[in-house]
Amino acid sequence: MNFTRWSARLPRTQRRIAARADRGARRPKPAAAAGGGSVPAARGESADPAGRGEPPAAAPSDVAPPAAVPTLDGLSAHDLLGQVPALVAVVYGPEHRIAYLNDTYVGLFGSRTPGTPAGQALPELRELGLLPLMDQVLRSGKPRTVKSRRVPAGGPATTPGPRQEGAAPGPGRSRHGYYTFTCSPIEMTAPKAIAPAQAADDRAAEADLDGTPVDGTPVDGSPVDGSPVVGSIREGVVRKAVAVPDAVATETVVADTGPATEPVRGVLVFGADVTDQVESAERLRASERLQREAAVTLQRSLLPQGLEQPDDLRVAATYQPGGTDAAVGGDWYDVITLGAGRTALVIGDVMGRGVRAAAVMGQLRTAVRAYARLDLPPHEVLQLLDGLAAEIDPHQIATCVYAVHDPNENRLVYASAGHLPILVRDPDGTVRRASEPTGPPLGTGGWLHTTGSVPLGPGASAVLYTDGLVERRDKDIYDGVAALERVFAGATGSPQVMCDRLIRALGITAEHDDDVAVLVLQHPARTGHDAELFHNAALELLGGVEAAPRARAFASGVLASWRFPMELRDLGVLAASELVANSLQHGTPPMRLRLRRTDRRLIIEVTDGDEHLPRRRRAEPVDEAGRGISIVATIASSWGSRRTPGGGKAVWCEFALPAG
Asked: What is the pTM of this model?
């Protein structure tokens, strides 16, 4: 394809061609060489534009003479500093005597007499903490800066002291302001002490040179009382700007001053008004503080207001949000009573910060409680949570540990979704990690979680925690886990005391940069009177017509030995009979009847080899069966069923023990 043929028709091509032509028209044309040796066509010109045989017109001059470039030689320091919209003060000598104050400074703090020490005439500098800073600048010769010093409304940052005679107070600010002060070292010239007659002659000579009146008042406002001259004669050279039409010429006149001046070291104090910036930063911090408080309030309202206390465990938890500079995260914990003495313990962490993370955390915690009511195995609960987390927010992930304690098995069965390992301490003080198995965080999808278990017998303790407890920016996270193991091995006391000790020992303070959640559980070893309140009894049922009478007789004898009231004993025997009858009719061997008492309830549980879970239904008047579960649900405080890990099911009911 001939691209040249189509290029003129492409978009914006004609505009680019026109722009190049316009630039070519504005570009100056080179003058024709003498002798006419150049070719007009090569320069885009026509030797005879009109075709009338007339000679071409003379080209205009190439470049116009440049305008006059101004210089700063004629601008005095007084004029320059006087127009700056900032506080400017010039002091000299070890006593920081006043050499110059600009109009902005005078308008805020009032006028001062030149030559007066700043410690007496400028009390605002002392209250702003600038006098020691000026001493450092004068000694080191290096500038120093202090930021955002507050000047209250109505005047300086101090109670006005006695002023020098002739000094007038300034109007001050209508509202408080903030200034950033920079103290810079400078070098000025000061006139030496000379005879009065010679001084008059010198002033007359200067008047002839630069227009200064004979009375000694300089045009640029320089003092004549011996103070250093700011922006005036230096090294005996006076520069005057002379305006010319095409340029600015500088005429230099050398004055025969000789040793009449000497250098003096001083300090230039420059105060920039940063009130708007400081107030904007304060508003931003206030907004962030309100958002953080809202997130913390939401976070705490979504956490359990009071932990459920199981019969067989002692549980305590603590939550500490990140420091004031850190946004709140999505850490959470929970304790859920499942029934039949079993307890679910949950801890998790939503990645991210702020209200959004707290909201996702609240939804996940609510879902965990709902799934826990189904009495599913831990890995199935996490499987359901994984799908829900992806639906709530596909860009959020969360880690979680879901564990279940069964007092009949004295084990902690758990599943982990990318969370840190549970630590278990045996009665002898040995600490073990329950680190396997684990899967990816919730919300990633495509993973089948599995369940593991770890012994948790009487006298053992366990701790569940989030990464804020052990993670540090300068260390590996598993170094923090190892440190937690060492601290946990020596921690004693109640679960709440252990929580506080773990937080304190690992250096968690109010300024910590991450949320921390800790959940501690203990399985106490009971002795004496407490041991009398916890009993277990079990009967293996082989089936047949004699199974139900054997179960009733066993239940009646056990409940009588536990000295229960007659009414509770009769209800317990009836419930055991109905559960066994239901298992005999719908279940398969092996079957077992288990009776268990705690200090607060009586638990009756029947297990068999069939996985079909019973459900309560409304029995019709003509039905001869189907009323057993309804009877149990009516007389018991609660009832439920679940599938057992080895296959089969367990059906249970509970009776609350009378107080006392």
From this structure: 0.64
The two beta strands, 452-455 and 431-434, are unpaired
Q: At what angle do helices 355-373 and 275-302 cross, to 10 degrees?
A: 0
CB-count exposure of residue 593 (10 Å: 0-12, 13-18, 19+): buried
Closest CA to 293 of 242, 235, 355, 217: 355
Beta carbons within 8 Å of 629's beta carbon, 6+ residues apart: 578, 582, 614, 615, 616, 617, 639
Distance CA 430, CA 341 (A): 26
Give residue 590's identity as a one-letter amino acid code.
P
Rounded CA-CA distance 540/49 in Å is 123
Query: Where does 393-438 have alpha helices with state H?
Result: none
Task: Give SS3 for 295.
Answer: helix
Q: Which tens digit of pLDDT belongs to each residue from 534-593? A: 889 999 988 777 888 999 999 999 999 999 999 999 999 999 999 999 998 888 888 999
Look up residue 605 and give its two tokens: 């549980």
Distance from C-alpha of 231 to C-alpha of 220, rounded to nearest angstrom: 8
Nearest Cα residue to 423 out of 434, 438, 413: 434
Rounded to whole angstroms, the maximal C-alpha distance in the chain is: 141
State the burial class of residue 613 (Cβ atoms within 10 Å of its Cβ: 0-12, 13-18, 19+): middle
pLDDT at 400: 95
User: Long-range contacts made by residues 630-635, C-beta under 8 angstroms, separation at least 24?
Assistant: 631/574, 631/575, 631/578, 632/575, 632/578, 632/579, 635/571, 635/574, 635/575
Instruction: Name residue 640's amino acid.
Output: G
Q: How far is CA 644 from CA 10, 377, 606, 610, 651, in A?
A: 76, 9, 11, 10, 10
The continuous run of DSSP H or E covering 278 comes out as: helix 275-302
The count of other CB atoms within 10 Å of the CB of residue 364 is: 25
| Number of Cα atoms under 13 Å in the Cβ half of residue 173 | 16
How far is residue 363's CA from residue 399's CA, in Å, rounded to a whole number?
Answer: 14
